[in-house]
UniProtKB/TrEMBL annotation:
PANTHER family: AMP-BINDING DOMAIN-CONTAINING PROTEIN-RELATED (PTHR43272:SF33), LONG-CHAIN-FATTY-ACID--COA LIGASE (PTHR43272). This is Probable AMP-binding enzyme. Residues 10-383 form the AMP-dependent synthetase/ligase domain. InterPro entries: AMP-bd_C_sf, AMP-binding_CS, AMP-dep_synth/lig_dom, ANL_N_sf. It catalyses: a long-chain fatty acid + ATP + CoA = a long-chain fatty acyl-CoA + AMP + diphosphate. It comes from the Bacteria.
Length: 552
C-alpha cells in the first residue's frame, strides 16, 4: 500500500503536465499541473525546515478550501511534520485550545468569511503564514515562500505507513474538541480502497467546497485524488458557487442534506412550486426535457456519483432527486474511522439506510444497540487522552455513540444517538433522530431539532426554509400543522410532537446552533428556543423586528 505522498509522486511521474488543482479568481480558473503542485509543495516544505520544523512537529492549517490548502498539506508531509487542520468558523476558544493542546509550531491561514474573527482568534506572536486573499497580519507570505526554490540538497521526507500523518480535532456538540490521531496507513487504507471500490480514474473531476478540515472531504476528494489521479476544482465564493459548479461539471459530487434541500428549493421556486413541477414532469417529452435542463442547470448532468453525508437526508428528498435523474447515495462514517464506514452503492441502494459496510470493514451492534466499527482506518486514539481512547476503542472496536440495527439484507440503519435519548415526564424514552427525519421531509423545513426531556410530549424547534420565510404566516402555520398531524400518525403515542417552534434565524456555525461539520448543537438550540413553546405552533422572535403580516 502506497502512502498518499508516494501515490502523489506516482501521479506526478505519470502525468506531470495534466491539470491537478483548479482555483477560480474573478471567474477564471488558474490551473496547477501535478508538476506545478509538486514543485510548490517542495518549496514550502523547504521553508518549513528553515523555520525549524522537524519530524513530527505539528503544523496547523486554517483556511477555506483552496489550492494552497492541498499544496500545504502535501508540503507538511514532505517536511515530515504532522498536520493539524482547523475548521473555518471555529470559535476563538476552540482555536486557542487546539493550538495549545496540539503544540503546533506554526499555522497557515487563508481566506475566511470574516477575517477579523480569525485575527482576533490567533494568539499574539503565534507564527503564521498567510495564503492569498487573507487580509490579516502574518509573519510570512505564502506567495513569496512558494516561489523560493528549495535547495538542491533538500531531501523530502519519505513517511512510512506507521508514521503519524495528522491530528484531526472533532467539533463535537458538547465539551472540548478531541484530537483524533491518524497514521498514514489509516488514510491510505480508506482513500485507496474507496478509489478501487467506486472506480475512480484520471478522467474524473472532483469539486472541493465542504471543509477540508473534516476527514470526509479530505479522504473523499483530496485523498482519492492521490490514488485516482483526477483533478480537483474549487469554488471562489458562496456567491459564485452555482456559477463555478456549472463550469466544473464534476463527475464526483459530495454534499450535505442542507445543500440538496437548497437545490430543490431553488428549482421549485423557479417552476412555481411542487404542484406545478409534478404536473410538468408527467408530460411526455416535456418531462424528460425538463429533467435534463434541471440536471444541466445544476451542473450535475455529467455527475456519475452524487453522495450525501454528515446527517440523515429525508427520504422524500432523495426520491425527488431520483425522479429528475440524480440518484443520491448516502454514506456513514466519522472522524475516528476516516469516514470509511458504510455506503449505499448506486447499484445496491436501500433508501432510508446508510448502506452496507465498505470492503474490509467489520460492523456490529452491541447489546445496548450501539453501532461498533473495526477496520484498518480506525484512529490510533485521542491525542493526550488515554482514558477517552480506552473508552472509545474498547474491545478493538470504535464505539460510535450511534444507535442502530442491521436489516436482513445487510443494510445499516441509524435510529439515533445513545446520549440523545431523552425521557418524557411519563417515563418513556424518545429517540429524536427518526422523528426529525419525518418532519424534515416538508420542503418548508430547513432543519429541525426534537427535544422534550421532562415534558409530557416532545416538541420540535424548526428552522424555516428561505422560501417559507416569505409566505403568509397563517397559511404556513396551517400547512405545517397538517404536516405535523400526518407525522404524528406514524409515531407511538409517547413520541408524538405537541408543538412546533418556528425560527426565522439561519442556523449557522457563527450563531452557535450548528457545529463546523453541520451537526445541530442540541443544548444551544434548547437553551435559546425552549422558552417559546406555546400551543401547536409558536414563533421565536425574528432576528430583526418586522411588522408585516408575512413571515419575513
Amino acid at each position: 500500500m502506497l502512502t498518499p505522498l508516494a501515490a502523489f509522486y506516482a501521479a506526478v511521474k505519470e502525468q506531470p503536465n495534466k491539470a491537478y488543482l483548479r482555483q477560480p479568481k474573478n471567474g477564471v480558473f488558474k490551473e496547477y499541473t501535478w508538476a506545478d503542485v509538486e514543485r510548490r509543495a517542495r518549496n514550502i516544505a523547504f521553508q518549513l525546515r528553515k523555520l525549524g520544523i522537524e519530524k513530527n512537529d505539528k503544523v496547523a492549517l486554517w483556511s477555506k478550501n483552496c489550492a494552497e490548502w492541498i499544496i500545504t498539506d502535501i508540503a507538511i508531509m514532505m517536511a515530515g511534520a504532522v498536520s493539524v487542520p482547523l475548521y473555518p468558523g471555529q470559535s476563538k476558544k476552540n482555536v486557542r485550545f487546539v493550538l495549545e493542546h496540539s503544540e503546533a509550531k506554526v499555522m497557515f491561514v487563508g481566506k475566511h468569511d470574516n477575517d477579523q474573527d480569525v485575527i482576533d482568534s490567533i494568539p499574539e506572536n503565534f507564527p503564521t503564514v498567510g495564503f492569498h486573499g487573507y487580509t490579516g497580519p502574518t509573519h510570512y507570505d505564502f506567495d513569496q515562500l512558494v516561489n523560493v526554490p528549495a535547495a538542491q540538497d533538500f531531501k523530502v521526507n519519505e513517511p512510512s505507513l506507521e508514521d503519524i500523518m495528522t491530528i484531526v480535532y472533532t467539533s463535537g456538540t458538547t465539551g472540548q474538541p478531541k484530537g483524533t490521531v491518524h497514521n498514514y496507513h489509516a488514510y491510505a487504507f480508506a482513500a485507496s480502497n474507496a478509489v478501487e471500490i467506486i472506480g475512480l480514474g484520471t478522467n474524473d473531476r472532483g469539486i472541493s467546497f465542504l471543509p477540508l478540515a473534516h476527514v470526509a472531504e479530505r479522504v473523499i476528494v483530496e485523498g482519492q485524488s492521490y490514488y485516482g489521479w483526477f483533478s480537483i476544482s474549487f469554488v471562489e465564493s458562496l456567491d459564485s458557487f452555482q456559477r463555478d459548479l456549472t463550469s466544473i461539471r464534476p463527475t464526483l459530487f459530495f454534499a450535505v442534506p442542507r445543500l440538496w434541500s437548497k437545490f430543490q428549493e431553488g428549482i421549485l421556486a423557479k417552476l412555481g412550486g411542487m404542484k406545478k413541477f409534478n404536473k410538468l414532469i408527467k408530460i411526455p417529452l416535456l418531462g424528460s426535457l425538463l429533467k435534463w435542463k434541471i440536471r444541466r442547470g445544476l451542473g450535475l448532468d455529467q455527475a456519475r456519483l452524487c453522495g450525501c453525508g454528515a446527517s440523515p437526508m429525508p427520504k422524500a428528498l432523495i426520491e425527488w432527486f431520483d425522479e429528475i435523474g440524480i440518484p443520491i447515495v448516502e454514506g456513514y462514517g466519522m472522524t475516528e474511522n476516516m469516514a470509511y464506514g458504510t455506503f449505499n452503492f448506486p447499484d445496491d441502494r436501500n433508501v432510508g439506510s446508510v448502506g452496507k459496510p465498505f470492503a474490509h470493514v467489520d460492523v456490529k451492534i452491541s447489546e445496548q444497540g450501539e453501532i461498533l466499527f473495526k477496520s484498518e482506518a480506525l484512529m490510533l486514539g485521542y491525542y493526550k487522552d488515554e482514558e477517552k481512547t480506552k473508552e472509545a476503542l474498547a474491545g478493538g472496536y470504535y464505539h460510535t455513540g450511534d444507535k442502530g440495527h442491521i436489516d436482513d439484507l445487510g443494510f445499516l440503519h441509524i435510529t439515533g444517538r445513545v446520549k440523545e435519548l431523552f425521557k418524557t415526564s411519563k417515563g418513556k424514552y424518545v429517540a429524536p433522530a427518526p422523528i426529525e427525519g419525518l418532519l424534515s421531509a416538508h420542503p418548508h423545513i430547513e432543519q429541525v431539532c426534537v427535544m422534550g426531556s421532562g415534558r409530557n410530549q416532545p416538541i420540535a424547534v424548526v428552522e424555516l426554509s428561505e422560501t417559507a420565510r416569505g409566505l403568509d404566516k397563517e397559511a404556513l402555520e396551517e400547512e405545517l400543522i397538517q404536516h405535523l398531524g400526518k407525522v404524528n400518525q406514524d409515531l407511538e403515542h409517547h413520541e408524538r410532537v405537541e408543538c412546533l417552534v418556528l425560527t426565522q434565524e439561519t442556523w449557522t456555525v457563527e450563531s452557535g446552533l450548528i457545529t463546523p461539520t453541520l451537526k445541530i448543537r442540541r443544548d444551544t438550540v434548547e437553551d435559546r428556543f425552549y422558552q417559546y413553546v406555546d400551543g401547536t405552533v409558536s414563533w421565536a422572535p425574528a432576528p430583526e423586528a418586522n411588522t408585516s403580516s408575512q413571515v419575513a
